[in-house]
Known about the structure:
By secondary structure, the protein is an alpha+beta fold. It has helices spanning 5-17, 72-87, 113-116, 120-136, 204-216, 235-245, 251-255, 316-321, 355-359, 412-417, and strands at residues 21-37, 40-58, 61-67, 141-160, 165-183, 186-189, 192-196, 227-233, 276-278, 301-305, 308-309, 330-332, 339-341, 346-348, 364-372, 384-395, 398-411, 419-422, 427-428, 433-435, 438-446. Helix 1 packs parallel to helix 2.
Amino acid sequence: MNTYQEPIQAVIDGARRRGLDAEVYLRASTSTSIRVQDGEIDQFSLSDSRGAGIRVIREGRVGYAYSEDLSTEALERTLEKAASNAALLESSPERGLASFPGETPEMAELYRPDLAEVPLPRKIEAALSLERIAKAADPRIKNVTSTGYSDAHGFLRVVSTLGVDRTYRSSSAWVSTVPLVTQDGENKTYYQIKVTRDFSHIDPEAIAREAVERALEKLGSQEVASGIYPVVFDPETFGDLISVFCGIFSSKTAQEGKSLLRGKVGEQVASSVVNLVDDPLDVQGWGARPFDDEGCPSRRVSLIEDGIFKTFLYNAETACKEGIESTGHAARGGYKGVLGVAPSNLILVPGKASPQNLLSRHERTLYVTHVTGLHAGANAISGDFSLQAEGFIYEGGERSAPIHNFTVSGNWYRLLEQIEDVGSDVEYQSSAVACPSVLVKDLAIAGK
């Protein structure tokens, strides 16, 4: 594996000669993408992407530049450009690099060379089988609108003039399918995606049949009367909500006055059954990593413990502003991006109740299995949301009917306080969120 030692060292040496603090963020990846339609390959691509972003700090001024040419000469020019950019910006004493002493955790299982060695014909057959099985699963299948297989293998190296030099590799593969079912003029779909690091875990039969079953169970959907209902969110849907509102845990967001959690560390902000952690060391999660995007070793961080807000997430700069250490949550949007703060694996810690137990707590409960309009219908600063939804009505713990065309509305901060219980059925999702089913005491529903 090429670690680009010579060009990176040239940048570090050049920065030191100029009296600059500098960091090289180098990312390389290879990926396969296959889309099939009607038994044929509809789209196919093999890609190889690589590039380096250089961050320079000069007297509290930060400059960025990047290059997709990783030769020594090109990266030396990129260093000069980053230094020139830094000279144009305003100075801030908190801006600087950190050394992050200590060992990074061993996470060899993130990279699966056996996945990289799977022959291309087997990947194609996985996608074709998934579509074929889904189409044949039920006579009410009208079409399978999209089916595919993708994988990616990444390499990240972060090196700085302060002695940081850390590297890791990662692998993942995912398959997806969208069956379209019809009955009595009604059409329903379900988007199914499965992510794994082990190709042998891709079971087209099981994945296709689950997708078809989830689409079929929506047929015969009714409208529900408006009102206040106890609501159970399935793991995927509540995970989507966590993803939309996770910015409230960013120290950068809080320091900019955009998080209503600002000033509430140590206070009760959620029901006592809520325990939310960010755990980059959990290799079942798709945001797992041994260090963050400026080389700070990863560790598990408790955000909400028994309903008490414990801490924000920090990178080196935001931590310096408050005189504390980074939590290891520096994030860049690839080598072209600038440094920010973001979670890795957000995990809502599961409880002991089964989903059926949650659905049986109240005489009449709405089970929400899908929401749309997450970005248009959710205000990440105020916490307000109003989302189109679909799901099921449960009466006396028994499923009564599928429902659609209703809106679920509320406020994220109040919703956290109204959580009555969390289930035991945690699911790890492609959004790097792990979540169980969640019972919320009451939410406003706008229906018929």
